[in-house]
Amino acid sequence: MGDAPEILVRFDQVHKSFRTSRGRRQVALDGFSMSIPRGAVVGLLGPNGSGKTTALKTLLGLVRPDRGTITAFGRGLPADQRFVARRMGALIEGPAFTGSLTGEHNLRLLGELHGADRSEIADALSLVGLDGAARRSYSGYSLGMKQRLGVAAALLSQPDLLVLDEPMNGLDPEAVRHMRELLKRLRDERGMTVVVSSHILSEVELVSDWVTIVRNGRVICDASVPELLSQGTSRLVVRVHDAVTAQSVLAGHGYTAVPATGPAGPELQVAPPVSGPKGPNAPDAPDDSQDPDDSQDTDGPDTADGSEVLKLLTDRAVYPRELLVESASLEDIYVAAVRAADAAAAQQESRHGS
């Protein structure tokens, strides 16, 4: 994001646990630390039960943390919760409206609480694309329309910060596209800061400027999307009819070729040799007497050389249908971060066990 962004909300070592029906303590947040930059769409990622919703509820004042600090708009929470609440809108755990009333009537009832007049209600409905369905009964709304009406309700207070918990959950592709475009408009046209809790990684990547990944109540990644993607490793993808032979040829020259099923059929994800090509056709090893400072780095490039891979395959009469370089996706970053966190946790557990 270029220069360091202005932080609107900051969680610092927040802890929260609940007592279960059996009297045990269940940890929901375990040293949770997160930053929310002003004017950004922030994707809060993590599996169910990771602590995402609990973290959002502590920000909204619905749950009181056991310890740790939360600051928003320069104020400390929960001490200044009333001041902060006036600047936030939220949709947590799905919308709840009266089914027999129209979408507009439901919003009018909520508008009385926020002091919103008819023009502001009409503006909210138009913004979420429900102006044409405003006078239809809520019970006849699709799931996507219900979610958008929930967002419209959250917008009635004209918030600076909008908090949405799983707004795309269960939506069809068209409804997801509508929601994605809405979030971008709120950021670009209204200057809102938007926090979106989700597990749909591809959608978060398309809409988010900043991503926070949560695992077992802890934040394991908190950075801008461009920064995260720049840390990922690109890979060469080879689409070929005879993947078995292609894999054998490349393995004979030191390449790691992992079979996969892509959108166009069988493919290989090819990683470069760690220490240069191997096999019968590999170049001679460097002279051991050479000065170490003059030798080339043997770590190899991050991405396999497509022209070299193509030559190796065609020399053996294996003709790829396509070669392309795929950049790392947010899903790649997410999986790597979760695996690293799980490995660190397992290592710590084994130390304590021994």
UniProtKB/TrEMBL annotation:
Coiled-coil region(s): none
Family annotation (Gene3D superfamilies): P-loop containing nucleotide triphosphate hydrolases (3.40.50.300)
Record domain ABC transporter: where: 9-241
SMART domains linked to this entry: AAA (SM00382)
Pfam family, one: ABC_tran
Keyword check for Transport: yes
Compositional bias of kind Acidic residues: 285-302
Protein name: ATP-binding cassette domain-containing protein
Native source species: Streptomyces caledonius
